[in-house]
Amino acid sequence: MKTILSVYGVCDIGLKKPNNEDMILLNDEMFRDGSRQKEFDADKRTVIAIADGIGGLDRGEAASEMALVRLKEVLEKIPDDLNNQELKEVFNVYTQETHNVMSQGMGSTIAGLFVYRNKVFRFHAGDSRIYLLRNGGLRRLTIDHSLKESGGNPDAPSNIITNALGGGNSAFIEFEEIDQPFMNGDIYLLSSDGLHDLVPPDVISDTLMLPDAEEIEATEKLLTLAKDNSGKDNISIITIKVKDKEK
Questions:
Q1: Nearest to 95 by CA among 22, 145, 147
Q2: CA–CA separation, 41 vs 31, rounded Å?
Q3: 3-class SS at 73?
Q4: Nearest Cα residue to 120 out of 39, 38, 41, 179
Q5: Is the dihedral of CA 37, 141, 137, 203 positive or negative?
Q6: CB of 233 within 8 A of CB of 17?
Q7: 247 burial via Cβ count (<10 Å: 0-12, 13-18, 19+)
Q8: Is the CB of residue 149 less than 8 Å from the CB of residue 129?
Q9: How many Cα atoms are found within 13 Å in the side-chain-facing hemisphere of 45?
Q10: Of the candidates 180, 164, 158, 185, which has an alpha carbon nearest to the alpha carbon of residue 242?
């Protein structure tokens, strides 16, 4: 039996913003203002990520692109024998170096999965999110680095973030291995706040579990729901369905 990651990503400007500051990385390809469908072997090195730029206009676009370009370059070059702590240090160095080279007024959130040595690691900075739908239950794997969530102020606006690459005086990345990462039928969802600020978790869950809905249909439905609820921000969504196939 072979485990496949069936991936569909869409990056959309939304309805209110003048440009798209989001960007998506699907291992060897980066894009915005479009969609891609990919399949990856679960036993091969793979990085899948979303970045949401901060700073407005070209600064936000440049920040999200820089975050993903540098991530891709770093992870392509690491050896195949790093342990978890060494890999965590790679992400820490990436975070500090990327943070330090961004110009004043630029910043980007990031959230993603990294498949390495038959393990899966999640990482994020800011308020882009990672969810896992397993056996009918949707679980969020990240806590927003925002004043509302990690800052412990439930009355604060959800868009005030407290950590991002290039934002503020310092930045950090949360990095952790996911236990039992691949079960047949699992669906991972990565999203920028243009989705999860507008579409409630129960609606996200119901959409992912629609009968016969494959990655494309579910993702496009979520995009439509975000737009129907004002589409006030850029919207990035990646769905990753775990499938066991005969070799």
A1: 145
A2: 21
A3: helix
A4: 179
A5: negative
A6: yes
A7: exposed
A8: no
A9: 12
A10: 185
25 vs 139: CA distance, rounded Å: 23
Please identify which residue in the block is written with the tokens 């737009």: 227
Residues sharing a CB contact under 8 Å with residue 247, sequence separation 6 or more, in sequence order = 1, 2
At 3, which amino acid appears?
A: T
b/e per residue, 10-26, with b = 16+ CB within 10 A?
A: bbbbbeebeebbbbbbb
Residue 104 tokens read as 């004043």
Per-residue pLDDT tens digits for 163-189: 999 978 899 999 999 999 999 999 999
This prediction has a pTM of 0.96
Q: What is the pLDDT of residues 22-58, one digit of tens each?
A: 999 999 999 999 999 999 999 999 999 999 999 775 7
Q: In the numeric block, which tokens belong to residue 62?
A: 């440049």
Beta strands 2-12 and 22-26, pairing class: unpaired
Token pair of 79, please?
């050896």
Q: What is the DSSP letter of 127?
A: S
